[in-house]
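Q: What structure does this chain adopt?
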Amino acid sequence: MSALLDPRQAQAFRFVRCTYHDGEAQLVYAFDNGSELIERIGFPDAPALPAERKPAFAAALRLLHLIAGVSYYKAGVPNEIAIEGEPLDAGLAQFMDTVYTHGLAEFAYHNKVDLRGRIRFPRHDNATQPPATRVNLPRRTLVPIGGGKDSLVSVEMLKRVNEPMSAVWVGDSALIASCAQRTGLPTLNLKRRLAPELFEYNRLGAYNGHIPVTAINSAILICAAILYGFDAIAFSNEASASAATLEYDGQPVNHQWSKSLDFERGLREYTKSHIAADLDYFSVLRPWSELAVTRAFAHGVQYDGVFSSCNRNFRIRGEKPADRWCGQCPKCHFVFLALAPFVAKPRLLAIFGRNLLDDAALAPGFDALLEYREHKPFECVGEGRESRAAMQALSLRPEWREDALVARFAEEIAPQLGADELALAPLLTPSATHFLPFRLQGLLHAHA
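A:
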């Protein structure tokens, strides 16, 4: 990598400007005085923005500019962050420090980069932001669709309480489009085009790794809610997303940090206080564990032929798999295991095309899910106690207990565990910790 092209040699990462015109937002960044990196966000068939919403949209666009910059900042991780134009007040700067530090914790772990003390967004004591006002957003909800079981469970839950809503997704995934269409809801497909220079940086050896994609998509959807007129954004992040993957050098590292309760709390508070007072941001599934979500998914079969949580379906670049389930990755392993206690075995085998629990070669992958001699994988999977409880439940069932990995669990692993580590029932009870709005509180009693 030449010195001119190497962002790791940069002294500063610059937030240059953000603009919006005729359905396209442009987010512009640069390293030092290098060429501009322009990311484009497309809002198809965007309506004209009412005058009363223009200040809210400008604030939302600025937040998107700041959060989406993480994709580029991580290529070099320079010591200085520079904000051009209007300075940040202390509250917004601190929020961005938190998003970058925690959102890049896994990236830092794998790249052996210490972010502590390095990430500091500039703040100005005299900078102020006007408080948010109500902008008369209509009563309807944007529901992000991810292609997996979680968002589909949210859709069906919201249908039962007659919530007016649209299915929304960011990007060009055909799998997500199929899931969104299967919901029967109105759909909204937003576009995101990364600056092409980023791929060249990566090809030439820049820093690369996990970023908080849900944080970026959340900021895009805040802009969309104001532009198209929605008063709520309902993600589908369950309680398990708040659990750290591991601890490293005294710091929690959570692959799902931007799906966590902490991020949800921070973003909803900032949105209500500084963007639009009548725009709500929350997770429908926050009160429940992954196992409670899979139990709900098991109630219907309409999505069996279209959904997938396998990450190989969602690569930005590279060959896509021929099958929806690769059967080799942690997501495939966890979803199979989590569904097994609640889905009839023939149905589950038809979804995956094979029995993952009867393949002894997959033992190391399932051991990681169980947190048996391994830490939890860096993937969006449930907690180890959920995997242990699911495996224990299967070991008690005639149709599963002779399968290779279930039998191994019963003979080798379960005897080392206490009863509280194997209990399924406590994991199916909703938590009181959530941000469900009053109009959706009935879901706590209807979900089973």
